Amino acid sequence: MSVRTKILIMCGGRGKRLGDLTEDIPKPLVKINDKTILENKIYQYQSQGFNDYIFCIGYKGEMIKTLIDQKTNISAHYSDAGLDAGILFRLNHAKDLFEDSVLMTYGDTYTDLELNALIKTHNNSDNEATIVVSPIQNPFGLVEFDKNNQVTYFKEKPILNYYIGYAIINKSSLDILPECLVNLPDGQGLVEFYKNLQQKNLLGCYYHSGLEATFNTKEELASAKNKMNRFYTAIVEN
Questions:
Q1: Considering the entire predicted model, what is its pTM?
Q2: Does the domain at residues 6-132+163-237 carry the CATH identifier 3.90.550.10?
């Protein structure tokens, strides 16, 4: 079991789309039932043997530190790249805090992902990064057509795969990172970073079909709570 891999959690965003919920607290401290999403994440990772963490903080970062100190018993390291740093900048800023690779996850995403299986898959590949993908059903029929408006493709409600904000990333990939990407805002830099690795045939994926809950709005927060409640209710009943 690979328990030496550090987990890096992105906790620096402002969470503006949650409105008044994040006026006084950072997004990872929004509660899912009786615990913050950050506590839920840490406890789930600890149950798999992971105790060494990096928190990329920014907006109200001192509140993140206080929660970690008071409510967990983990080894915590902090990286503060500033309030307005994009995700890739935050990751690159923290690279001196981990060794060969790091397991990166967003602070507003919760899954029942088997982390050691993900790490093993990545370590058995030649990829510089392995991203986690989950299935989602598009609610519409997708259509493609040519310049003469003739339909060339039609598929009703296809199952698509999307990136869920988890990845194993080699430190060596950041050492060859094109500098023009580092300062791109929000998640743009990370997307371009992945595209750059994909073009070099150095980006792999890991398929996860289990629980995945994330939120950017109040509506998505309500959906995330329902997903988690249904999932853990089913576990108890079984």
A1: 0.90
A2: yes
